[in-house]
Write a structure and sequence with these properties.
InterPro entries: AB_hydrolase_1, AB_hydrolase_fold, Sec-Metab_Biosynth_Hydrolase
Protein name: AB hydrolase-1 domain-containing protein
Number of helices: 10
Order of helices and strands: EHEHEHEHEHHEHEHEHH
GO molecular function: catalytic activity
Radius of gyration: 17 Å
Number of strands: 8
CATH superfamily: Alpha/Beta hydrolase fold, catalytic domain
CATH topology: Rossmann fold
Strand order of the largest sheet: 2-1-3-4-7-8
Shape: globular
Mean pLDDT: 96
Low-confidence stretches: none
Distance between the termini: 8 Å
Organism: Streptomyces poonensis
CATH architecture: 3-Layer(aba) Sandwich
Strand content: 15-25%
Oligomer: single chain
Length: about 240
């Protein structure tokens, strides 16, 4: 049986993994979701000083405090950035990294690098104008759906996402990842790709080509960008298969 540490993406907390965690635990795995600083029940712990290093420390500290070994680190979306950093720092505590509709970050890369410059500038303006200079609110679904598939999110699930999402500390988007940011050579590398990401991988986008090659193992999940909400059982099944 595996030990999963599940790290949520932007605007989310440990709550987002509840259904997937339930299925994994039913199957005998240890499944431990965490909430990053400044989000969900830890919203009051965030501030202008909250950055990528803060979230990397959240992940590494969680693993070390609980003296976890042979860990499978699971990163959804934004969490690819702190999980990449944590995997490079946790050494032989990590057995496997799993990127859910996301990909590992390179040293000196930041989240804003993934966006067109105009979109990044719009986010900076939004945070300055209405986020107290450090909080990024989740956009409306009609905007969110332009970049991320909402497939599988019915009205009930969208309502959960809308009401439980919290503004995200923007410093985690602007700070560049410092090394070390590469897990050991023996660490298993897994990608779970959902609808839009599957299309990019199949199209042969050059910067993603390495994800279709060993040592990476790829699993496709036919749902939208938030599989822990739209297909939690299927996501748990895929995670269980990846560690079997």
């Amino acid at each position: 049986m595996a030990t999963f540490v599940l790290v949520p993406g932007a605007w989310l907390g440990a709550w987002a993994w509840e259904d997937t965690v339930h299925v994994l635990r039913e199957r005998g795995h240890t499944a431990l979701p965490l909430t990053l600083t400044g989000l969900a029940e830890r919203a009051d712990q965030g501030g202008p000083q909250t950055d990528l290093d803060t979230h990397i420390a959240d992940v590494t500290g969680f693993v070390e405090r609980n003296d976890l070994r042979d860990v499978t680190l699971v990163a959804h979306s934004y969490a690819a950035a702190p999980v990449t950093g944590a995997a490079g720092r946790l050494g032989d505590r990590v057995a496997r990294v799993v990127y859910v509709d996301s990909a590992p970050f390179a040293v000196d890369m930041c989240v804003l690098d993934l966006m067109p410059p105009q979109e990044a500038d719009q986010l900076r303006h939004q945070v300055s104008a209405s986020g107290d200079g450090w909080r990024l609110a989740m956009p409306p679904f009609e905007v969110l759906g332009l970049d991320s598939s909402l497939d599988g999110l019915d009205e009930d699930r969208r309502d959960v996402l809308r009401t439980r999402a919290t503004p995200h500390p923007f410093g985690t988007y602007t700070q560049r990842l410092a090394g070390p940011a590469e897990p050991g050579p023996d660490v298993d590398r897994v990608l779970i790709a959902c609808h839009d990401f599957t299309g990019l991988l199949d199209a042969g986008v050059p910067m993603l080509a390495f994800l279709n090659q060993p040592p990476w193992r790829r699993f496709d999940l036919p749902t939208g960008h938030w599989p822990m909400l739209s297909a939690p059982t299927e996501l748990a099944d895929t995670l269980a298969t990846a560690v079997s």
